[in-house]
Write a structure and sequence with these properties.
It is a single chain. It is built from no helices and eight strands. With 93 residues, the chain is mainly beta. It has one domain: S-adenosyl-L-methionine-dependent methyltransferases (Single Sheet). A hairpin with a 5-residue loop joins strand 3 and strand 4. 8% of the residues are buried.
């Protein structure tokens, strides 16, 4: 809590962490491509990771968030018969 020097006012402040990004839609496209839609607040760094087992993760791509939903198309989706995706965020910009 912070109080003014004359004690007439006081206020609280809090740091709110950025909300995580969400994989909101996904679909297979023609030619074996996989499309992922990501919803995230602008100003975050987004990273999409892939894993064959949910144990070991490999960074697929990192990028800054844009306003509104972002669509990413994975052109090599058929290289692995089983592939998991996750999106993580970091404060940035």
């Amino acid at each position: 809590m912070v109080q003014s020097p004359d004690h007439a006012c006081q206020w609280d402040s809090a740091v709110v962490p950025p909300s995580p990004a969400r994989l909101s839609d996904y679909r297979m496209l023609a030619g074996g491509q996989f499309q992922i839609r990501i919803d995230a607040e602008p100003g975050l760094n987004l990273r999409i990771d892939i894993s064959p087992s949910l144990l070991d993760w490999i960074e697929l791509i990192s990028m800054p968030s844009v306003s509104g939903p972002y669509s990413f198309v994975e052109t090599n989706a058929l290289l692995d018969p089983k592939r998991f995706y996750r999106v993580t965020t970091e404060s940035g910009f």
